[in-house]
Structure formats: structure tokens, C-alpha cells
Design brief:
The chain is α/β, with parallel strands linked by helices. It has a single domain, classed as Uracil-DNA Glycosylase, subunit E. The chain has 10 helices and 8 strands. The strands form 2 sheets. A 4-stranded antiparallel β-sheet has the order 1-4-6-5. Strands 3-2-7-8 form a 4-stranded parallel β-sheet. A hairpin with a 2-residue loop joins strand 5 and strand 6. It is globular and about 50 Å long. The model has no long low-confidence stretch (mean pLDDT 94).
Length: 230
């Protein structure tokens, strides 16, 4: 069995800045942003940093700036995060991907993780690719629990959608058999803190916005304005 570990780009570029996390009142949880070792120029500069994503475009519009105001400008991102007291962390630190064939493994990673990436692919444990079985193991970011103990933090929201974390906080997948290392118990450990964990959720991904249309984007804008106090 061959395997590769794909790290979150936040671990490589040290996006979890203690001063920023400690200043924040709202924590935004996302899923995963793979560090592309094949084409590093394709890596995002920060959470939700790709131009196809709508999050920074919406924030820019809500504060009266042009939609491209934050593109490739991490200082502007930090400035608005400090001012409005919000920060980001993704729930997955890394993923381990397994296959019986090393060439197939590399091809799957290139075609489905470094390109054409969707959360639906990430949150499956087994899939097939060119008649080979691919197994995926997610390693969750336990540092989130330490962040929840910040004196300033008041609210947690997430951008994974109401299918991934439902209104009753049951999850897909559940991974109950993995105990504290599974997704359901990991989300439960977040919810059990005294910080408010908000549902519903809206994803700012181009996939979600294009699928949902203008009505979805309207709700996404309203949701972000309310929860980020913009």
C-alpha cells in the first residue's frame, strides 16, 4: 500500500498567528486547503484566497471597496480581520491518501486534490479512480480547541454547509468508530465549549454560489454581514 500526506497550506505558511487569533471575537471554520507541491504558484495566499472564491469579494463590497480589493494582498486581509475581530482556521490539518498503485496515487492527487478540488472528494473515506480503490484519512486540527479558550472569542461559524454539519450538529461523515479522532466527536468537542456555535452555514465557494444562484448569494451576503458585524 502506497500513501502520501497532503498538508494544509496554513501549516506551511504559518497562517495561525496567535495575536490575530487572540484578538478575534468570531472564528470562521473551513474545511481544508491543500498545499500544492507540484505547482506552488497555484497555492492561495490565505484562507479563501483564490479569485474564484466569493468570501473576500463579499467582505470588500460590504466595507465599500472594489471586489478585487483583497486579492493577493495579505496585509489588507490582516487589517480588516483585526478591525472587525474575526479569524479563520480549517478543521483539517492534513489528509493521508492511500492506493495499491503509486502511479495511480500520484495521478489521483494531481487530478483531484491539486486540481478540480471539491469538499465532496475530501470527505469521503473510499473512492475509485481508474478502477483502483483510493482511501482517504482526515487528520483534524485539535488546535481549534485551544483557540476556543480565548478570552475574546464569542462566536463560531463555519462555511462547510448544512449537509456537512447539520442543524442538530450531526455530521457527514460521522466516523463514530474513530472516537475522538472522528469528525462527529471532533465537532461535538467544539460545540461543547461555551462559545456560541452558529447554524445555519453558507459556503462562499464558486461551486456553491454557481449552484445556488442569485438567491443563494443574497443569503450568503446577509449571513456574512450579520456574523462578521460588517
Amino acid at each position: 500500500m502506497y500513501f502520501q500526506k497532503i498538508n494544509h497550506i496554513a501549516l506551511i505558511n504559518k497562517w495561525e498567528i496567535p495575536e490575530l487569533l487572540g484578538n478575534s471575537e468570531t472564528l470562521i471554520l473551513g474545511s481544508f486547503n491543500p498545499y500544492n507541491t507540484i505547482s506552488e504558484e497555484k497555492n492561495a495566499d490565505y484562507y479563501y484566497g483564490r479569485q474564484t472564491n466569493h468570501l473576500w469579494k463579499i467582505i470588500a463590497s460590504l466595507i465599500g471597496k472594489k471586489t478585487d480589493y483583497f486579492f493577493n494582498n495579505i496585509d489588507r486581509k490582516y487589517e480588516v480581520m483585526y478591525k472587525y475581530k474575526f479569524c479563520f482556521i480549517d478543521v483539517i490539518d492534513s489528509i493521508d491518501i492511500f492506493s495499491n498503485d503509486n502511479k495511480i496515487l500520484n495521478e489521483y492527487i494531481s487530478n483531484n486534490i491539486f486540481q478540480n478540488y471539491l469538499d465532496q472528494k475530501l470527505f469521503t473515506s473510499k473512492t475509485s479512480f481508474k478502477d483502483y480503490e483510493i482511501q482517504i484519512k482526515r487528520n483534524y486540527n485539535k488546535r481549534i480547541i485551544n483557540t476556543l479558550e480565548s478570552k475574546n472569542l464569542k462566536k463560531v461559524i463555519h462555511t462547510m454547509g448544512n449537509h456537512r454539519i447539520k442543524f442538530d450538529f450531526s455530521t457527514s461523515p460521522k466516523e463514530i468508530g474513530l472516537g475522538n479522532d472522528g469528525f462527529q466527536n471532533f465537532v461535538k468537542s467544539i460545540k461543547d465549549h461555551s462559545v456560541e456555535f452558529v447554524n445555519p452555514s453558507f459556503s462562499p465557494s464558486s461551486y456553491a454560489v454557481n449552484k445556488g444562484g442569485s438567491e443563494y448569494k443574497k443569503h450568503l451576503n446577509e449571513w456574512m454581514k450579520k456574523n462578521l458585524n460588517l
